[in-house]
Amino acid sequence: MGGGGSSTRRVTFEADENENITVVKGVRLSDSLIDRMKEPSSPSGRPQNRSATGAVNDEELKKRIAEELALERARRDAEAQKRRLFGKLLERERISSNEHLTRAILRERAATEEERQKAQRFARQLEEKDRELKKHDAYYKEQLARLEERSAQFYKVTTEQYQKAADEVSSRFK
């Protein structure tokens, strides 16, 4: 029988013309209880009539049914409590898993953001270095052009002086 929470129900029962027990209000009885209800309650094992002992048997039967119902209710209550506890345990585990997953996602997002910022920083540094290299390249090209110009002037002056000296020497020894 699965069942929800505990409920208190009043069960009324009566005997039909064959002294079979009929349960009213749709309460289901276990097979063992039905078998016990069919058995004679006297120690001799023979059926008794419904005179004075009938009332005692009805009381005993009511006690048995009440005990069986109490046991069944206790079993249902225990099952319901187990389900509630298991549900709470599953809920706690789900919440814990969600929190762990959320923390992992946040850590991953933070790490990704940090890596993105690092990449941007390195890109800016690389662009700065590139500008610096271009500036140095322009400076050195300018210096090289000046040196080449000076060298050309120096070559021209020395060539002129050589030619002048050569002409002088040549004019003296002619």
TrEMBL record:
Membrane topology according to the record: Lipid-anchor
Pfam families per UniProt: MIC19_MIC25 (PF05300)
Biased composition (Polar residues): 41-54
Region described as Disordered: spans on this chain: 29-59
GO CC annotation: MICOS complex
Localization annotation: Mitochondrion inner membrane
Keywords assigned by UniProt, alphabetized: Disulfide bond, Lipoprotein, Membrane, Mitochondrion, Mitochondrion inner membrane, Myristate
GO biological process, alphabetically ordered: inner mitochondrial membrane organization
Domain of life: Eukaryota
The name this protein goes by in its record: MIC19 protein
Source organism: Bucorvus abyssinicus
